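Follow-up to my earlier ticket, as requested here are the two runs.
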Amino acid sequence: MPRHRPDSPDFVKEEFPLYWLARVYGVYTMEMERALKPIGLDIPSWRALLILAERGTSSMSEISLHAIAKLSTVTKLVYRMKAEGLVDTATSELDARVTVVTLTAQGRQAIERGQLATRHIFQRSFEGLTPTQIRRLNESLHQILDNLSPRHADVAAGRPPSGESEGDAD
């Protein structure tokens, strides 16, 4: 049995990719918190701002999916960000159950401040890696995420695949 599997009698944690992933995420989180706090941001707000910058308008469910956070947590976050003037909310024209979120000018300025405050973290993070290595790393991580998804787990266990998430109502 491979040494990278925790169920192996020959298991070696340094050969377990998720050990390294957890360590990287822990250090990344500490560095990001340290960089964002002086400019009045936190990691959840930063994630939401970047999601909105990339996607334009997003529903709370979309933010929840991409920020890897519970919908109830994102709802509280968005309304805090709205009170801070970083985002606006509105009811979707297509579905009155859906709340859509957009960046304000103040939110775009917060992104610019955040990018300046965190740029050094990203430069250091990928130092010594080629674009090909970064692409392959992203592909591998995407595959692991897919393997861990509920749909994949259902199929592997011989169950019918789970349905899509329960609507997009916020």
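Run two:
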Amino acid sequence: MVDFRNVKYDPAYTLKEISAAITRDPQNATHYFKRAQYYQEAKNNKNALKDIEQAIKLDEERGEYHFRKAQILRDMSNYPAALTAAIQAEDLNYRSTDLDILLGELYLFSKKYEFALQYLNDAQEETPENEYIYFYRGLAYAHTSDSVAAIRNFKSAIRRAPDLIEAYNQLIKIYLNQKEDVQAWSYLRAGLKQDSTNAYLWYYAGEHYNNREQADSAYFSYKNAVKYDSLLYLAHHKLALLAFDKNNYSEAAAEMEKAMKFLKKLPQAHMILGESYEKLGELDKALPHYQWVYTREPQNIKAMWGVRRTMYRLYKLKRDSLRLDEKKKRDSLLAIFRQGQS
């Protein structure tokens, strides 16, 4: 007799069995649906999508299949296609709280906030303890400028899931925008206790200290932010500004360059780079940034003088270099002449 307490669950074996079932009965949509589930759980979304589409091809009237397809597409960040699949599931009378939450989330990504709230409210009536319902509602209210409702929902999400860090981030962001630093700091501390490696929490800590003109603490916080997420351009931008204010032009240029992919249309960023490179004597790097600003803002006196100053200095360097080359040539010819005279 088999002792099931000693039998280990083997996903690979189960997947093998389902694949064998598909080989035996390739027209059975249920087998493809089950294998799509396994692939999705294994984060193999490409194969999961392939199988769920085959299941739908064999039985297109099953709303559950379209719901699974929507989940897979959402995991692949293909939100428009995911929304289409989720709507199809609903049209086929598939009903579940998870579908309502998914539709709420996808309408949120589509910036259709009223539709998002409608589905999230329906989900809340069915499962009032699901933290993501409140989190997504908070996002929807925040985007419609209803900060009071947004705050209420983010707090509700945190009460139900104290480790939902993104709810802290959104709540802190609102409080900082409202200049409510005491409230922001309270949730910053609570959030960092939950996750001390969250880059956005450290970024918002930097914003908190910046508001209080505590530059050293702000610098430390922004440094932690980029330590935990090197691609967080907002923190690189703030580090560049702090370094520039301290005349640390090398660091200012290095940090701003890391942020420029997202700030290339911001005149201030180009001016920081122009001035920093000029101070470092890298005139060929400084000039394009001054020119970028001056071309778009002809009234910008600082940019105008930056262009004139760097162009003149580059001209002077080139002129002096040519003069030096000419002097070397003359000295060389003179040396040859003197050797011939001796």
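The only thing I checked on run two: The domain at 12-94 is CATH 1.25.40.10 (Serine Threonine Protein Phosphatase 5, Tetratricopeptide repeat). Let me know what else you need.
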